[in-house]
Amino acid sequence: DVQLVESGGGSVQAGGSLRLSCVASGVPFSIACMAWFRQVPGSEREGVASLSGYAEIAYADFVKGRFTISKDNAENTLYLQMNDLNSEDTAMYYCATQVSNRCVQALSTANYAYWGQGTQVTVS
């Protein structure tokens, strides 16, 4: 079974930083498309960043220059380093995988078959 477990969320002041982690199991992690999404209650889930099995990276415009996606294949862990946080970054953050090499429609939820439970980020 595929399992994705996020951690690292919390409360932080505006301008601060957080690093989210997602430990994956049951997927060919080193070659799989992985991504981060976020969702605010009452709004649709939106793509934040993706990292394909070919090391292709995509970022949403609203996080470019502030967030960095990376992974550690030895630890089967996906990261999202978030800097210069602001109140609009407050959301539940989710890890997801397409279980394919290339990320198809990388920042759309449409092709992501597996999701974690999420980790809450609150910026005040």
List the helices and strands and how they pair.
Layout: E1 3-7, E2 10-12, E3 18-25, E4 34-39, E5 46-51, E6 57-59, E7 67-72, E8 77-82, E9 91-97, E10 114-115, E11 119-123
Parallel strand pairs: 2-11
Antiparallel strand pairs: 1-3, 3-8, 4-5, 4-9, 5-6, 7-8, 9-10, 9-11
* Biggest pleated-sheet summary: 7 strands, mixed
Class computed from helices, strands and strand pairing? mainly beta
Total helices: the number is 0
Gyration radius, rounded: 13 Å
Arithmetic mean pLDDT: 96
Beta-strand proportion: over 45%
Structural shape: globular
H-E string: EEEEEEEEEEE
Please report the total strand number as a whole number. 11
Distance from N terminus to C terminus (CA atoms, Å) equals 37 Å
Helix content: under 10%
User: Low-confidence parts, pLDDT < 50 over ≥5 residues?
Assistant: none
